[in-house]
Design goal:
Elements lengths: L4 E5 L2 E9 L3 H12 L8 E7 L6 H12 L4 E6 L1 E4 L2 E4 L3 E7 L6 E7 L2 H14 L2 E8 L6 H11 L4 E6 L8 E3 L1 E3 L3 E7 L4 E7 L1 E3 L4 E7 L2 E5 L2 E2 H9 L1 H5 L1 H4 L3 E6 L8 E4 L1 E5 L4 E4 L8 E7 L1 H19 L6 E7 L12 H10 L4 E6 L2 E3 L2 E3 L2 E7 L1
Parallel strand pairs: 3-4, 9-10, 24-25
Antiparallel strand pairs: 1-2, 2-7, 3-7, 4-11, 5-6, 5-25, 8-13, 9-13, 10-26, 11-12, 14-28, 15-23, 16-17, 16-23, 17-18, 17-22, 19-20, 19-23, 21-22, 24-28, 26-27
Helix pairs in contact: 1-2, 8-9
Length: 382
């Protein structure tokens, strides 16, 4: 059981509990003991459980709601979850953070399957509030999820989406006051809730930008008017080109984001090659004229970018106090990239201090209304 991590201020507080036990009741009791007394003004909870508890999530949620008196909850399931400076994998664990936000300055939304659903669910609230940030969770099995994330952000002016896609070897439930699934859900925060967010990449470009010159859906035929596989071989080098099995899980396609002032890019998996026709398939649809940059998964540069993100956030926070945080990292990061002793989470605490934080290791991360891969997304409440 980990130490308590609490943050209390007048009018706003964050309380954290984490539990690990084969029985959900025992893990939940550990959480509640660490959270301690929940004042009546507490009105929102974030809950993340490992996939060992996915099938009984409704019982966990009902129990925490009854014991804390908090009606509004959001969260989901991960193959790994986060609590301040601690990562949980391959175990039965849960982490809960409860807070009191200004009354009326947040709105839980569930079962968003179209941008029109967002209009229907939020119409009344949006008339009286200026939305600033949405913390959302999505189902990776739903092919419409990436487009829905983009359309919600576009439809609601100035809305900034962060979050992650559920990761699980079993059920894929989400929490939005009740247990839901198969769509997008989460909580919208008004501009009266001060937050800062940051993104850390886990891959680094290995060559310059290219241009896709012919393609169909996710299959690329030519790059820079040359056979796609020839260009791929050229960029990854002779050693990897001779053994494509070594490239799997190490080399990726990066799709640069037009207009980004930080050189941002979306990382997508390579899902197939056709050596006879020299075609390359990636895990996203593309269009002729779109930029492409091959990337590699690299622990050293991932650490460097993690340091960059944390340094930038520390500068933006300034002298203000961090009251709580949410962290969504890729399944390919964490113990698979930074080490098995919670190094990724410890880096956050070492740079920014000891504050309540929860989150999970996702099957895709959401930042600024786009679906990423191999990234870490950190949101801080000030």
């Amino acid at each position: 059981m980990s130490q308590q991590t609490h943050s209390r201020t007048s009018g706003e507080m964050f309380l954290l509990g984490q539990g690990e036990a084969p029985e959900w009741e025992k893990a939940a009791e550990q959480c509640l003991q660490q959270i301690g007394y929940v004042p009546p003004e507490a009105n929102l909870g974030f809950l993340y459980v490992t996939d060992a508890f996915a099938g009984i999530l409704p019982f966990v949620l009902d129990h925490l709601r009854d014991e804390t008196g908090i009606a509004h909850w959001v969260g989901t399931v991960g193959m790994g979850i986060c609590a301040t400076a601690k990562e949980y994998y391959e175990t039965s664990a849960m982490a809960a953070m409860v807070t009191s936000l200004p009354p009326g300055d947040f709105q839980v939304v569930a079962d968003l399957r179209s941008s029109g659903d967002a209009d229907d669910s939020l119409g009344a609230w949006l008339k009286h509030h200026a939305p600033r940030l949405a913390v959302v969770h999505g189902d990776p099995r739903n092919g419409a999820t990436p487009g829905l994330i983009d359309s919600i952000g576009t439809r609601i002016h100035d809305l900034y989406l962060v979050g992650g896609l559920t990761s699980s070897r079993g059920d894929h439930p989400q929490i939005a006051d009740s247990v839901v699934g198969a769509a997008v859900s989460g909580v919208l925060l008004s501009d009266q809730v001060p937050v800062v967010t940051g993104l850390s990449q886990g891959c680094t470009p290995i060559a310059g930008k290219r241009v896709i010159t012919s393609c169909e859906r996710n299959i690329i035929a030519t790059i820079d008017d040359r056979p796609a596989l020839d260009v791929f071989y050229e960029d990854i080098g002779e050693i990897l080109a001779r053994d494509l099995n070594r490239a799997a899980g190490y080399i990726f396609a990066g799709l640069p984001i037009s207009g980004s002032d930080t050189g941002d890019y979306l990382v997508r998996n390579l899902v197939g090659v056709d050596t006879r026709n020299k075609l390359l398939a990636i895990g996203d649809t593309v269009e002729p004229g779109q930029a492409l940059q091959f990337c590699r998964r690299d622990g050293t540069t991932a650490w460097e970018d993690m340091d960059r993100m944390l340094t930038d956030l520390k500068r933006r926070v300034g002298r203000r106090r961090i009251r709580g945080g949410l962290y969504y990292s890729c399944l390919g990061r964490g113990q698979n990239l930074f080490g098995s002793d919670s190094e990724e989470l410890r880096a956050i605490r070492n740079e920014l201090g000891d504050f309540p934080l929860v989150g999970f290791f996702a099957n895709g991360e959401i930042f600024h209304n786009r679906l990423y891969g191999y990234t870490g997304v950190l949101t801080l409440f000030l």
